[in-house]
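Work Package 3 (structural annotation) set out to generate three-dimensional models for the target panel prioritized at the project kickoff. During this period the team completed the workflow that converts sequence records into discrete structure tokens, so that structures can be stored uniformly alongside our sequence database. As a representative example, we reproduce one entry of 365 residues exactly as it appears in the project archive.
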Amino acid sequence: MPVSLKPAPLSFYEKRLRSLIRLLGPSEGLLVTSMTNVRYLSGFTGSSGFLLIAKAGMAFATDFRYKEQAGKEVSGWDIVMEKNRMDTLKRLSRRFGLKCLRFEPAVPYEFWGRLKALGLELRPARAAVERLREKKDSLEMDSIKEAVRRAESAFLDVLPYIRTGASEISIALRLEEALKKKGSNLIPFGIIVASGPNSAMPHARATERRLAPGDLVVVDWGGEAGGYFSDMTRTLLVKGPMAGKKREIYGIVLEAQRKAISAVSCGVPAREIDNSARDIIKRAGYGSFFGHGVGHGVGLEVHERPGISGKARGRIEEAMVFTIEPGIYVPGLGGVRIEDMVVVRKKGAGLLTTLPRGLKIVSPK
């Protein structure tokens, strides 16, 4: 049965906000318009609103549609109903004595142009909230673990239906239904079920293609709980032609994943985790068939910081949550990806996903 999760208490939001306020000067304000970041800082789950944070005060603004919802979800903020966003921002900026406004760099160009009309100095905040979100607190971990549990339980329910003759799209739809029955109100992303030649495309969409003997079948899916996501991938093999070659590729990917997981440690550069998996695949002669990063952060978004790739600049810190998902994709033959989620602990990585990682063979029927 789905587990009931408690909303974060006010103290969790206060801790996050204190970290941001320390970054602001006495006449600076931080404008938060990303609804994911709004939720992270205030608990608001609606689709429209913004936060203005300053040393002189904090305001949460939304429109009439969310008046009642905001009253239930948002505490500790000055709640303002906006009719015109720029008018509201102008009024709040004056109230807080702002001379400089920090904004999220992802705001639309048109909105940035309107911000200039406020007459304030504008500075990009450069992922200030996203950096906080990299490290998960205990309540976030409860939600992520439940999202993993729901996803794994749904997959096990659907596993008997992954067999020859079943179409990719029918499996994906069955898995989506199972996820919702387990309590996932949101589906993190379009479920990938890719078989045979389609499995050689890392982000293939499920089609009407039916599973056949000899197919590699990549299933990439995730669950949700309390607004937090999980993300995992398993690759199955339908018994049939060229099974030996496909087993070989699977073994290489599994070895690469194990090596990457063992490389996770506080302070290690993220790119070293990627390199540890990539080196295994390169030495086996498949380096040109692995073109994506080995992992990414998961939380309120299914793809968030930190990035685990050869281009990553940061270091791994305790309480970060991310995937480890090496793969090999050979056109005409098929692809293999194994994806699990880990949390960084003081000593190494803790696996959050629990499904077996050995190759599952599906017998033709």
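The domain at 138-362 is CATH 3.90.230.10 (Creatine Amidinohydrolase).
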